[in-house]
Design brief:
Structural class: mainly beta
Helix content: 10-25%
Shape: elongated
Distance between the termini: 56 Å
Number of domains: 3
Strand content: 35-45%
Largest sheet: 6 strands, antiparallel, barrel
Strand order of the largest sheet: 20-21-22-25-24-23
Number of strands: 26
Radius of gyration: 25 Å
Length: 451
């Protein structure tokens, strides 16, 4: 995508002065400005004093995880519990006179990752306004997964939720080796107590008619009606016969749960005398093409087939299952709805970001940038894989690393990992912001239990 100069944004703008006039004309919406202002409230100044007495400053971002608040900053800035404990955290350092500052203190190290350049620090006291902002708890996107194998062995793990704003749907990522077709059951437990089941558009049934065994495309068994009896009255839908990798299944018009599949009666239009019973769900592996087919999936999947990124994407998506489920917890639905409404305002204009941070510990500033591309981030040196946004923004230097990067197209918040290049003083700096995810850490199975 061609990127142009950002008129009127050649310097960082004090955040308290940032208004619609600092946005390109096509982004000037009151709702968008409100989103930016709310995001800016989550940006803090962090100060660490070294053993030699030197004060070091960086930006931090308040997140919520598992019901608790933490400040996310860069691992290169805070690397251990000693630095995290006692560090100074300042909210609302927006004005030069520092009148409205809320001071907090780091109380411990929640986690740190050199690979992701990310550290989470607990702190106190918790400012009252944080609870009023209704911040999305990131734990919703990393639910506990409980699986039961065919032999009754139970396993628990954690995996990743990804949403599609345009479809208003959420999907579960599972590694390829977790073959869901070999599981007796899979349940997802979210942090608010919601228990969800996988859904699929394909169900298995028995007995398989001899005619279908010899000819999977037999006309008499190509279509059927399915009576789903999970309610008193039940409901009837049409279905068609499909043949995948030696498996004969029925394709349903809408995804169903395991319970619905097992409580289904099937009647083929070419065999009026026989009743068949649903036995379970069938899942198709995700490949790159099927991931591309999910409109609005929150990573950009390029259509070129020869780029190194495409090869990486093929490797990733051929190694994972993309699975629908229900119910979707209310907070995830609310988050998707809120961000979808914002996205509609800028869906037909070039993608943009707003960077908010404290350069060298100075008061909070903001600057607008234009997205060059987005997609998969892969650091070959250490194997780090995540989602990235590459953007251009004038005046963004290394002293803003760690700042919040708000993607206006999706409403997602990234953190500024690095400034990649600056060709000249007249040209915008190219920057990388990431949502770092250690894919090798997902679905880390806990000790199995047997009934």
């Amino acid at each position: 995508m061609e990127t142009g100069k950002i008129a009127g944004n050649d310097a960082l703008v004090p955040f308290e002065d940032f208004d619609q006039g600092h946005l390109p004309e096509e982004w000037r919406h009151e709702e968008l400005l409100e989103l930016i202002k709310d995001a800016g409230k989550l940006v803090v100044r962090v100060k660490v004093t070294t053993e030699s007495g030197e004060d070091l400053y960086s930006s931090g971002l308040v997140i919520k995880y598992g019901g608790s608040f933490a400040v996310q900053t860069n691992n290169k800035f805070i690397t251990n519990v000693t630095m995290a404990t006692g560090c100074e955290i300042e909210f609302s350092y927006d004005k030069e006179d520092r009148n409205d500052i809320i001071k907090c203190v780091g109380t411990g190290l929640v986690e740190t990752s050199k690979l992701l350049d990310k550290t989470l620090v607990s702190f106190e006291p918790i400012p009252d306004f944080l609870n009023e902002l209704n911040i999305m708890d990131n734990k919703y996107f990393l639910p506990d997964i409980e699986t039961v194998n065919k032999d009754g062995v139970k396993e628990t793990a954690t995996s990743l939720i990804m949403t599609s704003l345009s479809q208003n749907k959420a999907y579960l990522f599972l590694p390829e080796n977790e073959d869901v077709n070999k599981k007796a059951d899979v349940k997802m437990r979210f942090c608010d107590g919601t228990v969800s089941d996988l859904t699929s558009n394909w169900i298995t049934f028995e007995p398989i008619p001899d005619e279908l065994k010899s000819n999977p495309h037999h006309d008499d068994y190509s279509t059927c009606k399915v009576l789903i009896c999970t309610t008193v009255d039940g409901r009837t839908v049409g279905a068609t016969t499909e043949f995948f990798s030696g498996q004969i299944v029925l394709e349903m018009p809408q995804p169903v749960t395991l319970e619905e599949a097992k409580n289904s009666a099937i009647y083929f239009y070419g065999d009026n005398d026989s009743e068949f019973l649903g036995t379970g769900l069938y899942f198709k592996k995700s490949i790159l093409e099927s991931a591309r087919a999910i409109n609005g999936l929150e990573i950009n999947i390029p259509k070129a087939d020869t780029t190194p990124e495409n090869e990486l994407l093929t490797q990733i998506f051929n190694s994972f299952w993309l699975l629908s489920f229900k119910p979707i917890p209310n907070p995830i639905q609310h988050d998707m709805s809120k961000r979808k409404n914002i996205c509609k305002l800028v869906e037909n204009v070039p993608g943009g970001v707003v960077v908010i941070g404290h350069p060298n510990g100075k008061r909070k500033v903001a600057v607008v940038g234009r997205i060059v591309r987005s997609g998969i981030y892969h650091d070959k040196e250490n194997g780090d894989i995540g989602f990235e946004v590459i953007f251009e923004a004038n005046s963004v230097k290394q002293d803003l690393v760690g700042a919040l990067v708000l993607c206006l197209r999706t409403g997602k918040i990234y953190h500024l990992k690095e400034v990649l290049s600056a060709n000249s003083d007249e040209e915008a700096d190219t920057c990388r912001a990431v949502l770092g995810i250690r894919l090798d850490q997902l679905f880390k199975v806990n000790k199995p239990k047997r009934d």
